[in-house]
Hints:
By secondary structure, the chain is α/β, with parallel strands linked by helices. The chain has helices spanning 10-14, 23-34, 47-57, 87-100, 122-125, 128-131, 143-147, 163-172, 197-208, 225-230, 242-247, 259-271, and strands at 5-8, 38-41, 62-65, 70-73, 79-82, 105-110, 115-118, 153-157, 178-181, 188-192, 215-219, 233-236, 250-251. The mean pLDDT is 94.
Amino acid sequence: MPIRLxxxxxxxxxxRSDLSVSPRTRAALDAARAAGLHVVPVTARQPxxxxxxxxxxxxxxxxxxxxxxxxxxxxxxxxxxEAHVAADVQRALAVALAERVPGxxxxxxxxxxxxxxxxTGYADIAHVEDHKREPAEMGAHGLDAVLxxxxxxxxxxxxRLTPRELLVELRALGLPGFAVTxxxxxFLEVLAEGVSKAWGLERLCAHxxxxxxxxxxxxxxxxxxxxxxxxxxGVAVANADTEARDAAPERTLxxxxxxxxxxxxxxxxxxxxx
Length: 274
């Protein structure tokens, strides 16, 4: 069955390390769209983060943001779905983890990814590229304010522990009601239970009438693993983490070597009989 939809992660996969879209990659994306394929960014970024590179990549249609929790049309603003971490779930997690690992800080990302409610102290350890936001704009809120409303994405971060180290502590709590992943950024990303990039992609494909076997997906990080395993054809870039490599049947060149473009060029040449 031919490929009808390209699902690609952005940071570490489609984008070069300087966060640029290379001319070769842009040409390959344009050729895929001209051939009638859906080209969908599937990212941990919120829509505002996707918009920062949308013009360079030619993204104007559907995007899956927040690790699959949020399906939104970039041109019309139509929201296909949103999945939130329940307020009581994130409160139980935050209270237990802060007790187990003192110094842990939390952020609630709400209202289509536009509202960012950061706990006091978080902005002090954040950088602009962490969330595609200036730390000075993050605010400083008490934990109760962070926890009072459901989150599209609930951020968990420690000043010294790595995401992998913090993940061990979080899982040791044995709490239910959420999913957790990480994307190569210096924090954990807590989502509604069952949510992943694969979860969101499955819902978008159902909306578009695309079969799982008709999906070609690219990724590099642990948060891409479910999507790479779910897609009819999953491809990890050469710089991918172990979790992504293990989930993907195929490999391509690194993000800095235009690995996504290389695969798309081959796919389009094959489909055109070239």
